[in-house]
Amino acid sequence: MGLPVLGHPSLCLDGQRISIQLPPTALPQPPCGRQPHPGDRGSSVPFLSTKAPLPATLTLSRHEDYSPGTPEEISSALACFLNSSAPGLNHIPYSVWKSLHHIRPTLLLSLLNPLLAHSFHAPSLQKALGIVLDKPGKPVYDSPSSFRIIILLCTLSKILERVAASRLSIRALTCSLIHPRQCCSLPRTSTVDAAQVLQQHVQSLHQLRHKASTNFLDIKGGLDNVESPVLLFLLRRKSVSLYLIKWISSFLRDRTCRLSFERSLPTFALVSVGVPQCSPISPVRFVIYLSSLYTEIHNSLTIFDVDPSPSW
């Protein structure tokens, strides 16, 4: 079966393998054979940035551990998005995808299932648009810290990311990917839950006539500094499904972004480190990334919380 998908010349499926006809430089070079190590740095990993030519046809194998998505899974993902949310470079709003899914529930599945099954994130979905906005109240605007960037991703990509995030969240809870006191966008581990646990702990100490103090730390620019090899190493060590690990690797590899501001040039720059904060899957990945930093402190309560607000 041939499907004209995502703006590429052709994408053909035969049930177990996928063949993609692309220009020689349209896809990133596959990663080298060695396993990444937490000590690796982003600039030293060959597959994070490469301009090596590739063959015009890339053949990927279907992973046996992949379970096909369902219309209900897509409906749940679409329900998380507002119709008023700004679309990315494809200019397709979520209202269009919701209407199409209501009329033909198998349409989005036919587009997204092959990408997850073959752990492939298409290059056209890896392009982001960054809207540069002034931070209010600044006396002067002569440094990067005086601005904030709102990243807009392709709406189809974010639907796929939401599906992957739901699956990774289940793994995070069932496979001990996170510490029990880490909080993020997971069931029963939201910011509200973290605040309630803290309040209960302080009240219990006050009832015993003990003094309690709270120390809050902020990891500045945390999502912007996530290193892909370290994250993938942690996922492999916890035996996360291979198809999900390889899809995350494909998602993070060779991402590009174009900034939009007055007199800006319409050119894309490579983003070789970090995860986009506006991505539905980024908060869960960041919590997993920080899990090794968690340490118990005697006679204290330690909570890791991630703010998933979409501003990057």
Key attributes of the depicted protein:
8 helices; single chain; 10 strands; disordered N terminus; 14% strand; alpha+beta
Question: Would you write up a description of this structure?
Answer:
The chain is an alpha+beta fold and 312 residues long. Helices cover 31% and strands 14% of the residues. It has helices at 71-78, 94-103, 106-117, 155-174, 191-207, 228-237, 242-252, 282-290; strands at residues 2-3, 10-13, 17-21, 57-61, 127-134, 147-152, 182-183, 255-260, 269-271, 304-305. A four-stranded antiparallel β-sheet has the order 1-2-3-4, covered by helices on one side. It has a four-stranded mixed β-sheet with strand order 6-5-8-9, with no helix packed on it. β1 (2-3) and β2 form a beta hairpin. α4 runs parallel beside α8 (282-290). The longest helix is centred in the middle third of the chain and has 20 residues, at 155-174. It is globular.
